[in-house]
Structures are given as structure tokens and as C-alpha cells.
Amino acid sequence: AAQAPVRLSLNLLASSDPPEAASWLLCEVSDFSPPNILLMWLENQREVNTSWFATTHPTPQPGSTMFWAWSVLRVPGPTSPQPATYTCVVSHEDSRTLLNASRSLDVSCKSPLGPGLGGGLCGGP
């Protein structure tokens, strides 16, 4: 029987240090069948260029008829002084709604003390 995905997680894999470097976000979706699924990324509600991310083909979950997939997004160094919100959007043929998860990253944060020496001045989740 078809089942739309019910689990979606979005995690920061690596934060940029120094801040000028890239960060990486991981989006995982599981518990869906059939394996036809579309994962895409948005930056501040605009579609991200496909060259910035890689997505796996859906893989069967061990001991189950359900599938899981993941996508990793490269978040470039600072391009503006404002934090950006990145959203992983999942579309599945058995669901009329889109599943999504967002995370706000302040990639413009710079410490006056130098790389890695901010002492928590930058904040963030």
C-alpha cells in the first residue's frame, strides 16, 4: 500500500569555521512507499540551484517495505549581512501536501576575536 512520508529531519552537519567557509545541511525523509519522491531546497523561499545539493535515490529500509532518502545542501559562505532560511521540501505521489523543514543560518557571523574565538557572540541554534 502507498504511504506518504511521515518523518522529515533537517540537521546542520558542519558549521563554517572560519565563517567565510561553507556549511552543510542534511535533510532525511523516511517511512514512505512507493519510492517515487522529490526532494528540493529553498533559500528564503527561492529554489536553490541543483548544483548546490546532492540527493540519494530512495533506499529500502531494513526489514520493511518502506523507503528512506536524504539530501545534503552546501551553504556557501556569507553573501549578505542577513541570516538565510533554508528549507528542505519533499513531494510524494501519495500526498497532496508538501512536507518541509526549515533552518535559519547566520552565515554572515564573524567574530572580532578571529575564527573559532567568538565566545558565543554569534549565537544560533
From TrEMBL:
Taxonomic classification: Eukaryota, Metazoa, Chordata, Craniata, Vertebrata
UniProt-listed GO biological process terms: immunoglobulin mediated immune response
GO molecular function, one term: antigen binding
Keywords of the record: Immunoglobulin domain
Gene3D superfamilies, per the entry: Immunoglobulins
Domain Ig-like: 25-106
Alphabetical list of InterPro entries matching this protein: Ig-like_dom, Ig-like_dom_sf, Ig-like_fold, Ig_C1-set, Immune_Resp_Modulators
Organism of derivation: Macaca mulatta
Protein name per UniProt: Ig-like domain-containing protein
